[in-house]
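Re-run with default settings, no changes from the original entry. Doing this only to confirm the output is reproducible before filing.
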Amino acid sequence: MRTLPKFILSAAMVTVMATSFSAVQAATPADTLVQAWQMDDIISLDPAEVFELSASEILGNTYERLITYDIKDVSKISGQVAESWTVSPDGKTYTFKIRPNKKFASGSNITAEDVVYSLHRAVALDKSPAFILGQFGFTKDNVKDKIKQTGPLELTIEVDKPYAPTLVLYCLGNSVASIVEKKLLVQNEKDGDWGYNWLKTKYAGSGPYIMRDWKANEVLVLERNPNYEKKTPLARVIYRHIKETASQRLLLEKGDIDVARSLNPEEITAMSKNPDVKVQSAPKGTIYYLGLNQKNPNLSKPEVRLALKYLVDYSAIADTIMKYKGEVHQNFLPKGFLGAETTTPYKVDVAKAKELLAKAGLKDGFSVTMDTRSTPEIMGVAQAMQSTFGQAGIKLEILPMDSKQALTKYRARQHDIYIGNWGSDYQDPNSNADTFAANDDNSDGAKAKPLAWRNAWDPGPLTAKTRAAVMERDAEKRAQMYKELQKSVLDDSPFVIFLQQTEVAAVRKNVDNFVLGPSFSDNDMSQTKKN
């Protein structure tokens, strides 16, 4: 069996870095970036399965895909493993040429066979992110006929409809489309599992770093890939799982870590005044919203839906509870997406809300519950809303629960109001339009269950308009279609969107080129260095 090259990092060193720093330590090694992060969401490191934020970042630094984009301007799409591509006149067949001499970490060349195998594998395994490829008509039964190798460095991908090309390309740049080394996976396959049980904790990619060691809820170590075309300045990146934000701050102040990823607003404020630390931030494609269940007779009234939009103190939430971690945003497309609107017409206006409630026959208000996750930030936002709702006579009962409980109830349409966030799966506007503005079947037994369905909302003609937008190949026309969709959802929907997430990291001053991107998979350590 082929094995990856041996590296300097020893098991003893991993253990030292993973253990708690009980005494004052020397500065972190000059060739190593040490980060503290709450990353207990990692359940697998197989690109065909990863659907969690922390693991997405790991994949972004260890695997490559056919397509990538400029994180400063995501509209600029380029090839990563692909050297070039063409689209057939009917818009259904994409032909990709692979860059010659691209190598896996093992030293083997990347071929079209590896790319085809990787896409077949993702569809066949059918794990959580497989729908990103499946939406183009690929199934376990037909994928080998639709995605084919046509030469050593050439392949074709045939989609079922002439979608907007950018949609297809963005999805081929998603983590689920990461390219794995076929020979290595075949050698570790058992009982036809496509090497799945092996790759959950191992590595078979070609990115700037190699995933060297992972101990769940303790440490994850990335090591420089010697066969990557652009050598990383650092020999390794070490992630330490540290849940307590106060511990992260202390370790950062002492120099025992280089980056703290999970600080609260007060700690970020303190770190911004520390001369040895710099605070970095970047907007993420994640929005916070309220979902109003239309099975509730009061929440189903248009005047009530509108009234609630006037009972959120957007600015106060952004400036206090979510300080540094979000900014006011009221449309379903995050800033940076094609056609994204940045209008924020709603502000807290209790008098206006009372007028609307009176028109709905609810001048004395009503009682309603809100399902919340038991995190300090979400609970704080819920309590702020409880206060402003109360000023208009709406008695809001907060029901705190863990994330799994809240999501299970939400997905079963058993909530009144749900407070949550939604992160885009890929950098195309369809990722959000398909869930906020479309609902093909509003029955309880529906197969597709987007956010519109979860809130029992039939968006009427918006569903057809969403389907039409994904087929429009002219970017300007397509952007205008999404602007119109956002306006309709903003004016009359069961969604009260109030914030777009900002990711914040506190970084030691001697660290340069630590990059936070528009999605977690875009957080880039490949050119990070220490002075």
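The longest strand covers residues 277-292. Residues 1-25 have pLDDT under 50 and may be disordered.
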